[in-house]
UniProtKB/TrEMBL annotation:
Its cofactor is heme b. One of its GO terms (biological process) is respiratory electron transport chain. The keyword Protein biosynthesis does not apply. It is a multi-pass membrane protein. Residues 6-159 form the Cytochrome b561 bacterial/Ni-hydrogenase domain. The chain crosses the membrane at residues 12-32, 44-66, 93-114, 126-147. The lineage of its organism: Bacteria, Pseudomonadati, Pseudomonadota, Alphaproteobacteria, Hyphomicrobiales. It comes from the Bacteria. InterPro entries: Cyt_b561_bac/Ni-Hgenase (IPR011577), Cytochrome_b561_oxidase (IPR052168), Di-haem_cyt_TM (IPR016174). This is Cytochrome b. It comes from Borborobacter arsenicus. GO terms for molecular function: electron transfer activity; heme binding; metal ion binding.
Length: 162
């Protein structure tokens, strides 16, 4: 893989930063329930969840802005149309996830004085499960490229060695 077919450093660093933060959202979102209501660890995990989630929203907006101005390297030419379509659809869903999920989270805790009912919370909880499935598909695809196709695709998203 030569330098021309890599993601640029900003896209690479934003990708991995957001990926780690998304994992932290699953850790916090699913672990705080182990602690009693009103307990210190539960409150701490909840506040961390809100802080990291809001950071993801900001970074997600930054990513989409960056992406619009920076075309990613083309997919390997020998991938079928269907595979390319699946890759693009998954990537769009992942972008949508890092924007919509925090918005639903914010709507869950702050309804601007209006009662929105349960739907933001229900959709946020459903969103979490859908995101697990999409990320699993995404990671499985990355492993398939790395271990089975051996086409060096993962290297495009790894920081370049100086
Ligand atoms: C261990 C976990 C992950 C691995 C191994 C991984 C790997 C990759 C790789 C190799 C690409 C480049 C695909 C290409 O060259 O066309 C990519 C793109 C992408 N990844 Fe991940 N990823 C991971 C986690 C995540 C997570 C958690 C998210 C977001 C929730 C995410 C969102 C994206 C998006 C949106 C793109 C498309 C970038 C673009 O073309 O604009 N990834 N990922
Ligand atoms: C990409 C960002 C986010 C991800 C991946 C995420 C993920 C999760 C997960 C996995 C849960 C547990 C769901 C369950 O119990 O089944 C959860 C719950 C929750 N999240 Fe998030 N979250 C994100 C952003 C946010 C933000 C920004 C906020 C608030 C500002 C927020 C507020 C909440 C709240 C209030 C709950 C509890 C809902 C309930 O009471 O059932 N989340 N989130």
């Amino acid at each position: 893989m030569n330098g021309k077919v890599r993601y640029d450093p900003v896209a690479v660093w934003l990708h991995w930063l957001v990926a780690v933060l998304v994992l932290a959202q699953f850790a916090t979102g699913w672990i705080w329930g182990w602690f009693e209501r009103g307990s210190e660890p539960r409150f701490y995990l909840f506040r961390t969840h809100i802080f990291i989630g809001s950071t993801i929203l900001a970074l997600g907006l930054l990513r989409v802005g960056w992406r619009l101005g920076h075309t990613p390297p083309p997919l390997p030419a020998d991938m079928s149309r269907l595979q390319a379509l699946a890759a693009h659809a998954t990537h769009r869903l992942l972008y949508l996830a890092i924007l919509l999920q925090p918005v639903l989270g914010l709507l869950t805790i702050s309804t601007f004085g209006k009662s929105l009912g349960r739907w933001p919370r229900d959709l946020h909880n459903l969103g979490a499960k859908l995101i697990v499935a999409i990320v699993a598909l995404h990671v499985a695809a990355a492993l398939w490229h790395q271990l089975i196709r051996k086409d060096g695709l993962l290297a495009r998203m790894i920081p370049a060695r100086p």
